[in-house]
Each structure stands twice: as C-alpha cells, then as structure tokens.
Amino acid sequence: MKKVSNRHLYPAIFGICLVVSLLFSPSLSAQDDAAAQEPAAEAAAEAGGSEGPCGPGDPANGKQLFNQNCAACHALDRRMTGPALANVAVRLTEEEGLDCEWIYSWIKNSAGKIASGDAYANRIYEEYNQAAMTAFPTLSNQDINDILAYTEAPPPAPAVAAAPAGGAAEGGSGSSGLSNELILGALILVFGMLVAMLVVVNRTLRRIAEASGVVLEKEKAQKGTPIWKAYAQNQFLVLVTVIFLLLGSAYFAYGWMMQVGVDQGYQPIQPIHYSHKIHAGDNGIECKYCHSSARVSKHSGIPSLNICMNCHKSIYEYKGNPEGPSAEDLANGYTNEFYTGEIKKLYAAVGWDEATQSYTGNSKPVEWVRIHNLPDFVYFNHSQHVEVGQIECQTCHGPVEEMEIMYQDAPLTMGWCINCHRETNVRMEGNDYYEKIHEELARKYGVEQVTAAQMGGLECGKCHY
Amino acid sequence: MASNKKYWKSEVELSPDNSIVEKLKQNEFPEKLPEDAFLGDKEQLASSQTSRRDFLKYVGFSTAAASLAACEGPVHKSIPYVMQPERIIPGVANFYATTIADGYDFASILVKTREGRPIKIENNKEAAVLGGSNARIQASVLSLYDSTRLQGPRSSEGDVAWEGLDAAVKAKLGSLRNGGKQIALLTQTYASPSTDRLLGDFMAAYPNAVHVTYDAISSDAALTAYEANYGERALADYDLSKADLILSFGADFLGDWQGGGYDGGYAKGRVPKNGKMSRHIQFESIMSLTGANADKRVPLTPAQQKVALAHLYARLNGSSVSGELPEAAARALESAVSQIAKNKRRAVVLTGLDDTDAQSVVLSINEMLGSEAFQPEAPRYVRQGNTAAMDQLLADMKAGRVGALIMDGVNPGYSLPASAGFAEAVQNVDLSVAFSTNWNETTALCTFTAAANHFLESWGDAEFKKGHYSLMQPVIRELFDTRQFQQSLLLWMDSEQSWHDYIAQTWSEGILAGGDWNKALHDGVYVPGGMAMSDPETVASPDTDKEMASPAEAAAVSSVVPIASAVRRLAGASDEGMSLVLYSKVGMGDGRQAGNPWLQEFPDPITRVSWDNYVTVSKADAASMGLVNEHVANGGLDGSYVNLTVGGATLNNVPVIIQPGQAPGTLGLSFGYGRQVGMKSEMQTGVNAFALYAGFSNTQSATVEKAAGTHEFACIQLHNTLMGRGDIIKETTLEIFNTEDASHWNHVPQVSLNHQEVPATSVDLWDHFDRSVGHHFNMSIDLNACTGCGACVIACHAENNVPVVGKQEIRLSRDMHWLRIDRYYSSEDTFEADNIKKDEFSGAMESKAGFEEMEDPAANPQVAFQPVMCQHCNHAPCETVCPVAATAHSRQGHNHMAYNRCVGTRYCANNCPYKVRRFNWFLYSDNEEFDYHMNNDLGKMVLNPDVNVRSRGVMEKCSWCIQMTQKSILDAKREGRPVTDEEFQTACSNACSSGAIVFGDINDSESEVSKLAESDRMYHLLEHVGTRPNVFYHVKVRNTNEA
Question: Does residue A242 form part of some domain?
Fold first, then answer.
C-alpha cells in the first residue's frame, strides 16, 4: 500500500522540490526567481486557493514565509519534527473543530497555549516528543493567512516543469553517444579500406616485378653477415647496450619500488556513498564543520553520525542540482533516488526512525575505509597545520570539494612533507607564542620570515617518536 | 691458568650416583627422541608422492605468492562514534581527578584518559595531603587492564548471574537477621566517610553484624598507641618539612610506613637552603630506602632499637634506664640529644617497630619535645586494621558462630599465616562472599566470588587526614560485569539508592557544608572552610610556645606511669636467635598488585633485583653460614638458598641476598610475593612472607639453615660500589659546603691541553650550535631531594610504552627501562674515604689489589641514588657513530631517535658513556614468548597512542617525553601565548613528588630549571668526556654535623 502511494507522491514531491530548490538557490538571479514563482502562482490561481479557510491569502507570499519560518520543522506532506501542514487549516477546523483564532494564537505563542491547558495543544505537544514549537509573535494574521493559503494550494503539476528538462537531458546524452559511435565506425571503415588498398597495390607491384625479372632484396641480404651476428661480434656495442639495459631496468625497478606503499590516488568504495562534492562543493559546507577536531586534535576526525544528523534530520532526500543531474552523474547512476537511498543508509546506521522522527537506539556504526594512512611511526598533528599554520585543507587533500568519491590526492611520502616544510614560511604574525622568537630572530639574523625547516621542522624527532 | 671452576647445568649433576648424569655424558638427550613419529618408516617415506623437486617448487611458489601478497596494502577501517560524547575529542586527552584508596595505597591523583581509556596516573598537585603517587599507584592503571581479572560473579560451581548471587545472599542475610549467628564484614581500610556511614546503616539493619577492618600489613601497634593517648583509632601525622632533626627507629617513612607519602615533606627539608638542611639519623635492621637516605645510619637489631629508644626517652626526661647499647648507637644518640637540646621543637622521632610500647614512647617523646612536625591533632585514617578484632573473628568463625562472611578488598587466604587457620575457619561459615578484582587464594575458598570494580571504575570518597576529603570517580565504565561492594550492600539492604547518590548525600549533609559538590569532584580534594584555619602552621608560632608546652607536659604527667613501665619494658628487650624483619618493597607493597608486570619488573631500589623477593642477610652472618652471592659467566647474579623457620612455619628454599648495611643477627624478607592462585605463571615469583607473619608483628625470631642449590636472580645492577669515582656522584658534607668554595667540593675535572691542565669544560672537539632562539630544554636532578623511590621509573614505562621483558631477559642484561636509578654503596665507611683510598694507590700492583677490594661494599656503607636517563648530550657520542643517522640532535636540546630509520647496529649503545640506550632484542608486543600486557588486547589499552611501540631490532632510549613538550608548545601556539614554565614536563618530572627532577627551558630566564642551572651544586655527569649533557645533577650534601 505504502509503495503505491509513494509512487503517486514522487512526481508531486519532485515538483515541489524543484520549485523550492529554485527559490532557495542563492545563485539564481532575480529573473529566475520571478520565473519560478510564476507556476506556483498560476497553480494557486487555478485552484482558487487564494480564498483560504481563514480569509484570503497570497500563496506566493505564504510560500516564502513558510520556507523562512516553518520549513526547518514542517513539511507539507510529511511528518518531521512537527506535523505535516498540507491543508492544516481545513483539517483543524473540520476534524478538531478549532477555529482560525486558535491557529493564530498557537502560532504566535504555542507555549502559552499549552500552558493554558488546551486539550488539542497538549495532545500535539505530547505526540511530538514534547518539542515545543518556536513562538512567532512577529507574524501578522495576514501572514498566517498567506501561509495557510500556501498549505491549501495543491502542489504544482510537476510533470510539466520537470519532464522537458529531463527529457532534453536524456535526448542530448543519447545523440552525443550516437554521433561518437558513428564517427568511430566511419573511421574504422576508412582505415579498413586503406589497408585493403595497400595489400592490393603491394600484390600488383610484386607481380609486375616478377614479370620484369627484378631480384628482390631478400636474396641479396643472405650473402652478407646478418645484422644480429655483426652486432653480437661487436663487443663494445654489446657492452654499451648491456649497460644501458641495466641502467634502464634499474631506473624502472627503482621507480617501481618507490611507489610500494605509496597510495596516491587510493579511492576505496565506502559503505555509504558520501559525496564531498555535494557537501563541500555544491553546498559549500566548511570542512571543519564536520571535521571539527582538526582544530584542536592530531586527528581530523571522521565525523560521528550525530553530526550528520544535525542536517539530515530535516534533509531526508536528495533534491539534486537546480539544473538537474548532469549527464555524467546519470551515466554513473548518481540519480536523486540514489542519493536519497544513501541518506536512508545513514538513518539505518544511526538508528533514526523517520516515521516517528526519533532515535530507536538500534545503531550500527559505519565502518569507513580509511584513505589517508600514515605509518604508526609518524606523528602528524592536524591542529598544528590547520589552526596554527592556517593551511587550507586542500593543500594536502586536494580538491575535495570536487571529489564525488574521496581519494588520496597527495603521495604522503616523507619527501613530500619535507618539501613543504622547506618552502612554507612559519606564520608568526599575530601569534604571541612567536613574539619573542621572532624578535630574537630579527635581532640576531635580521630575518623577518623563516621556513618551517629553519624552525626545526626537519628534525627527526619532531615527527618520529 | 686453567680455571678449575665447574659449571653445572642442573642440580641433578651434583649427585654423581644419579643415572641421568652418566646418560647425559654419553647422549645429548636423556631419552630417545621420537623421530619415528615425524619421519615415519622408511618405506612410506620412499613411496611418498612428493619428490624433492616438488617440494622445492612448493616452497618457491609459496614464497613468491607470499611476497606478492605482501605488496598489497592492508585495508584500515575507521569507525567513528555514532553519538560522540561531548567531552571526548579523538586525539585529545582528558584529565579527571580521582582517588586511590585500595586499602594499601591512598592518594589523590589525576587520571589521563584518551578516547575514554585511562592510560596514565599523575599527581594531583592541588592535594595538600597524599597528592603524590608512588610506583605502585603509577602502575595501578595497568591493573585495570589485567587480562586475569574476574569478568563476572562466580559461585563455587561456576559462573553465576548477579541476580542469583543477590538472591542467595539476601536469603541468607534475612534468615540470619533473627538467628543467633553473626554476619561478619571483613574489609580493607577505606578511610571513607560514606562507607563508614553505610556500614553503620548496614549494622543498624542487621544488628547481629560485625565489621572487622583488616590490613594485610598491620599498623595495629601505632593505632593502639595513638588511641590510648588521644582516644581515636588513627595515626599521628608528621610534616617532615618542619623538622631539622629526624630520628627514626626502624620507620621506613620514605617507603610504606603508616601509609607512606612522607617523601615530599622530607625532601623539602633535605635541600640545603641558606646553609641549612635537616639531619636524619636512622636506626634500623634492614637496609631500607629510608636508611639509605639517612645522614647517619646505625644498623641495630629490633631489640637494640627498642633499647636505644628507651635510652633516648631517658636522656630527654633526665632519667636513666638499663640496657646495653652498641657504641655506635650510643654515640649517634648522644649527638642527636645534643642537637635536640638546641632546638627541641624542630626535632621529631618516628618508629616502625610493631610494638605498642615503642609507639607510645615515641608519641610521648614528640609531645615532650613539642615537635612542630608532629601533628597529632589532625591524624591520618589510612590504616585502621584491628588485629584483636581479626583474631576474635577467626575464633568465632572456627567455633561456627559466624553465619555469613562478606569480604572486600582483602585476601586473608594469602596474607594470613597458615597458623591462623583461615581456610579451615571459612569452612565453618555457611555463606562466604568475597569481593575481588581477581581470582585469588581467598576467592578460591568462598561460596561466592563477587567480581569487584577496579578503583578507576568506582565511586567513592576518602578522608585521608582529619579534615582533608577526597572524592573518587569512575574514569571508565566497568569493563566487565562487575559491581562495587558498597553498591551491593545497598542492594542487599533493599535500598533504592545508588552508591553515587549515597555519597552525594553524605557529602551534602555532612562534609560540604555549603561547598560545591561539582567543584569538589572536579578538584578531587576538598577541605572544608573551617579546617584550613586549624593548620598547625598558624598555631605554632613562638609566642604560643609556653602554652603549647604545658598541655604536652600535662599529657606526659598524666600517662607517666604507663610510659615509665613501657620504657622499662623497651629497655629490657633482647633478641632470641636471629631476628627476622618483615618489610614491604616500594615496588610490591602487600602484593595486591602482584600480577602487574610493570611492578614485577621494577627493580628494588636497594638490591636492584626484580621479579623476586629474597632474604637479606648481613655479610658477617652470610660468611658464618656459608651463604654466597656470585656472578656467573653471563653476568647474572646467583645466590644460595636457605630454609627459614619461624615458630612452626617454615619457608623452604628462600634465595639469599647479602645486604650491605644489614644489622648482624638480623634477616629481612619482603611481603607481597609468592602469590599463586589466579596468577599467570610468569608472575608467580618469590616466596610468601606472610606465612611467617605471626601475631601481626614485623619482627620475628627465626632460625635459618642453608639449603642446597643456587637461585638465579634477575638483577639490574651488578656493580655495587662507586670505586672512588667521585665525579659520578659528587658528594660533600654540609660543613664543607657551607665553609669552602664551590671549586673545592664541586671540582670541575681537568684535562690536558697543550701540556696544560685546563678545565674539561673549556675544551671541545665540536663546534657549538646556536640554541639561544626558541626553547632549549634542560633537566635538573637534585641528588639531595631524590629518595630513590622509583615512581619515575614506572611513570616512564606508562608514558613511553616501554616493554616488559621478563625475568630471563633481565638476567641477560636486556632490561628496557629508559630511566634507571643507580644505587651505589661505598666500600669504605663513606664515599669520601673511597676517594682518598683510591687517590693513595701507588703502582700497578697496589692499585689492582686495591680496586679489587673496593668492589666490595662496606658492612655499613653510605648509599647514594642517581637517576640516569639519556643525558641528551649536545655533543652526543652516539650520534657520530650511527651509520644511518637514525639518532640526531635538535635545536631544542633533545637527542632524537628515529626508530624507523634505525637498522640496529648498536654502535650508539657501545659509544654511549652513560649506557642509557636499550636494544629491542625481540618483538615484545603480540609475542607469546612475552606474555605480558602487550600480548593481549586488554593490556594494550594502556598504551600511549602518541608514542610508537618499537619493533624488534631497533634501539630506543629516553626521548625526554618529546611528545609532552611538543604538546605544550602546540597548545601555546594554538592559543597564541607563550608557554609557561610549569607546562614543560616529562613523565618523570611530573611523577616526582619530592621535586628532585625539574625539567624546563633554560632560554627562559624565569624558569626554575634555569635558576637551578646557575646553582653552585650543579654538575654534569662525566664532564671530562666533553659530551655537554643537557641533564645536570646537584651535588649531594650530607648533614654530618655531629653537634
């Protein structure tokens, strides 16, 4: 049963998401904004929803207000921290017999309503884990009417907006694939014809030569010393070749051995497909929001799952880029449904029950595959580099914000560490720890800047103990 | 000159009639080896399908496959928390203040935890009393991760659930409530206000319950004496920093005497300040840690000590007593009395004799003197064992008058002599329950064994000293299915309260008096506001001298009759046969941590023997009985065996150590060893001295007879004397120190340069680097403050993941201690006499003979302790010989050791003049051959994640805890501030409660270490070698003023 209803819901949700994400996207120009609001307004007009149960309202404005104030805890058709709000006014008036005044007072001061002993208010408070709703005294009754009008409005027909975009994308990718194959086929055909022609020409020439009695070079060559024999007899040449061969193989053997244990480019498959591109790139989340211990600890820290849940309590599905999934993503199978499935994996691991919006306590820690493995005999401290040195995470970890799947960007060899220590100046300004050292250095050697190496950053014991 | 020495493979060879001896001469193996089993019969072998070629193919293929497979890197998993606790950041240590009160050791401590695991014990510097940890407390964190710990409750049939145990106990207690039989609670000393209240509640609920406190090593005499004088069962406290003269009669107060913890105060008075330091005279039988530190040490038998004490009392109150004293003792007493006469308030007398008379006399002497160090008004509660009650309980048990016996923190099955008949007494009890962390001799006898928490998993509180409270909080959740005794009592009393709430209630009702519980918990210690005022410092001003004296006199008068008779009894004491003195080692205590490999491997500070206890005898007695100690070909120390008999009890084959300074006619034997039940076979070392502990007296009359065979010791230090090398331990007397120039008593060695004698410090083979910018670390070790207790050695083990190597490896001189405390004896009466003797040798023959003589310590030698770790030489000899540059110098003064670079040539160790480098002969982790804590997952939890676990074939040594200095620097950088002096610490300097080891930055002119570096007493070890060490020592000054 649930499956069926979900199937019906999908296009609707998708449409809403599209509109919402369009509205939210800060990169959009005003023009786009206006364009996006149009279908919503139209939809509202069609439904005649401007005449809400508590009076007329503007669903367009209501939507804006809803997204600003309500969306963190409420969705239209889905229970979140608070109840689903689609048709809330109708529901309350018809099922609970509450009037609009009740709704106004509840929104403006829910705690007061609960304290007043109102039956429904207390029931809903208990039902939602005693999570008190924020009071919104600044909303006017008209604002609330607008919001209610928005909750009345049926979701805009999503197929109209989404289908052409998706269709175009598919068509585009299909045609480009086709043309590539065509060109390749043509090239092969041309090449085959050339080979055939060459064979024919060769055969003809040979026949002509035979006919005119020309002796081929083959027989001539048999008379002289074969080249390999001549070569073998020239000991100097043999020696030089052997030396070159040995040197060459030594070079390659050395090169091969030096990469043993260097895992640059190591890109294991993780138990949850976590995309740094979406989090750090598309959404611009600061690295240290999740990897917070990098500021104070030697470990950058794999974020614990409760940090994920800070956002993913309300972000329960992936709505994709405003432009829709790129061809490349689709080719890799990174559809919105795929990402949403990964979020469900997170819920399973952390033990989050979406239906009740609560933790079940059945958690299953995620066993991430560690990518950056320093040997045990190396001491590396993130906070030294990130906090004291103010070095960008990307300096060592590469363009993480572009990585769909995380990989090891740097070789993490000692030579790589040391090079950086040789080239990087110690960031002394504004740090009282360095004040005295800097003053003494300036006085003694007349230098203003020193590299990490000059400060002792190459000493064995700084990293090996 | 062929040697006639014969080496025996085993004692069997000593009996020539044994058939095995002849067999061994002919055959390598006494029995035919079962080669058929693995070779099979010839035919079968010939018909085998596997040819030699096939075999080689298989070998080749598997080698190739293995090496190819090895190229693949292992996959590491990273598993984050699901819900990360707020306070835990991976990689950052948290510290919690808690308290150890395990019945033997009592201290306020800080516990360092990483990712929720306690890994290190530190001193709680905010604690006014017992804030310093000794070696055992430092090691106690490893006992938490003991793989032999009990993992759940048991009955005599097998594992049970707590519900089953509770039901059985409650049923029994319920039936006894109105029955005639007793309920007996036999517990350790808690010194805990909440536990006292709880026991009171329990006894109110069960009126027929009795509570008996039992200390394995009893201080009953001192408790009884104090109770008789002051009306409370406690121990008088002493602040030794306020004493100018310390007279001790067999009190090992730098060891475990009356709960220990006196070294901090003692050391304060021992460092010469303004030309003054305290003077310490010790009368004792065995060579104790305390005696080794004394300015004047007089070896006396226990009976002679009593006589000497009686004489002292008589001299001080002007009476006279009988009893003969040896001349040396009489002289020492004379000089002490004359010093007391000058300022009696600055003198203090202590005794460790298990004799109520002696303890009473000492209390009354201190009263008489009005000693400032003597603090009877704020006594200690860390020993409360009552031997009379214990004897009564045993009698009741044997008579069947006890229905239920509940024990906690005690192991009477081990620590009572067989004559006490504990095993048989338990049989007569209907229900016996023992709370214990480990399976032991007592749990094996009981109906139920309740698996108890380690103290790091427990709640609790303590009052070590009147008015000084401490709190104990768990720093990790219970590792196993264990429960605290107190929590269980609450359950059995049908109380709903948790033990934590019970403590909180006790504190809020009685102790806090408006103070903040959270702050007390955070600090670990709490002194109620009113108590601080009664600090004796404010009371003991000169104006109140008269008022103070009069109550003391009154007390003396009031008890004049019993004291007089006590003195008479003391004066009449005499020895019967050999006197056996039972003592405890700082490394083992009463044996409750005998399963701790760190402590087993900890070398005794005096004998430097690890993994053993032994009977100590004087040189004279050893000669008369034919007992020997000798070094065998591989350098190991061997000793004779004796059989010791006290009363009816005999200990067979007790190894012998000939102990310089042991009073002739006495023997010494330490407690804590000889545990068998529930122990790994490696840890079952030594003999059980408790078998001879009759009547809870530490002196027993014993008979000795030599037994056959020799014992193999694991002794760390084989060379006992200093051989007149006065520049290793520089020593002087207070008189010379005060009157002469520093160049006289702290002479800089001279070397010859261009045929001129110049100071060694002025000549150098190497160029100096500029170390004036940034930090330059130095370490100061004050030989006057160092008592040799060894807390630093264990702290170093814990901080730096130093492996335990076991008895056999120690015997092969493969010990891994990064920090050792050398102990030297003088071969003449004093080290000074050694120096003079050495200087007077003339000619090769005389010096050869002379040096041979000097290898032998004197009968009553002077003793000196010297902690030696890597000296972090600026011109380090090890660095120049390393072929792979694995050891190198830093501008901060560290001598670095890169383990991953080391190839194990051991050139560095050979070239180190201080012999501080240690080589990993084996892989000591995950190795069945070394089944200590690094061989199981539980024990590995104690490892410090910031320090590497070294592998086989690399050299290691003291790193000066570079991980700690680096952390301090990084913290300061991150917070953008300069590093403060206190932040620079090493594990050893942190652990040193006597302040002997000070670490810091000498480029910081305000730092303590830079001031110490300027001291006249400063010298470097082996200065003439020119290594320019960054560790320096302070000349040891002895107060030998005979005035």
Answer: no
The count of domains in chain A is 4
Residues A371 and A325 placed together within one structural domain of the fold: yes
Alpha-carbon separation of residue B878 from A412, B368, B382, B897, B901 (angstroms): 30, 59, 48, 10, 15
A217 touches chain B (CB under 8 A): no
- Beta strand B1036-1038 pairing with B731-733: parallel
Does A336 share its domain with A444? no
A107 and A188 share a domain?
no
In a domain, A257, yes or no: no
- For the domain that residue A49 is a member of, what is the CATH number? 1.10.760.10
A199 part of a folded domain: yes
Give B105's pLDDT tier (boundaries 50, 70, 90).
very high
| pLDDT at residue A72, as a whole number | 76
Q: What is the mean pLDDT of residues A248-261?
A: 89
What's the whole-number mean pLDDT along residues A391-409? 93
Is the distance from CB of A421 to CB of A457 less than 8 angstroms?
yes
Q: How is domain B154-213+387-531 classified at the CATH fold level?
A: Rossmann fold (3.40.50)
* pLDDT at residue B553, as a whole number: 45
Together in a domain, A456 and A334: no
Distance CA(B609)–CA(B322), nearest Å, equals: 41
Cα-based torsion angle of the residue sequence B487, B492, B495, B500 in order, rounded to the nearest 10 degrees: 0
CB of B811 closer than 8 Å to CB of B636? yes
Please say if the pLDDT value at position B48 is more than 70: no
Assess whether the region B220-382 and the region B578-715 belong to the same CATH fold. no
Enumerate the domain spans of chain B. 8-49, 154-213+387-531, 220-382, 578-715, 731-1038
For residue A126, the model assigns a pLDDT of 81
Statement to judge: residues A420 and A462 lie in one domain: yes
Distances (CA, A) of B27 to B6, B31, B354, B396: 20, 9, 57, 61
The class of domain B578-715 in CATH terms is mainly beta
Choose the mutation target among B899, B974, B986, B1003 for the interface with A, i.e. most A CBs under 10 Å.
Answer: B974
Helix ranges (DSSP H) in B399-440: 412-415, 422-427
A342 and A206 part of one domain: no
Flag whether the ipTM exceeds 0.85. Answer: no
pLDDT (0 to 100) of residue A115: 82
The predicted structure's pLDDT at residue B1:
45
Question: Which of A42-51, A360-369, B707-716, B880-889 shows the lowest per-residue confidence on average (mean pLDDT)?
Answer: A42-51
Nearest to A370 among B76, B91, B92 (CB): B76
Residue A380 falls inside a structural domain:
no
Q: Is any Cβ of chain B less than 8 angstroms from the Cβ of A388? A: yes
* Residue closest to B259 by CA, chosen among B436, B100, B434, B96: B100
Q: Read out DSSP for B602-662?
A: SPPTTT-EES---EEE-HHHHHHHT--EEE-TTS-EEEEEEEEEETTEEEEEEEEEE-TTP
Q: Specify the pLDDT at position A39.
A: 47
Q: What are the tens digits of pLDDT across the range A104-146?
A: 888 888 888 788 888 888 888 888 777 778 888 888 888 888 8
Q: What is the pLDDT of residue B506?
A: 94
Distance to chain A for B162, nearest Cα, Å: 25
Q: What is the pLDDT of residue B551?
A: 43
Residue A461 sits at the chain B interface (C-beta within 8 Å): yes
Shared domain for A198 and A331, answered yes or no, is no
- Residues 218-237 of chain A whose Cβ lies under 8 A from any Cβ of chain B: none
According to CATH, the topology of domain B220-382 is Dimethylsulfoxide Reductase; domain 2 (3.40.228)
B373-388 pLDDT per residue, tens: 999 999 999 999 999 9
Q: Which domain holds residue A187?
A: 183-214
Instruction: Say which residue, B634 or B358, is predicted with more confidence.
Output: B358
In CATH, the number for domain B731-1038 is 3.30.70.20
Nearest to B80 among A261, A303, A441 (CB): A303
B25-37 pLDDT per residue, tens: 777 776 777 766 6
Interface of B with A in 878-937 (CB under 8 A): 886, 888, 890-892, 894, 896-901
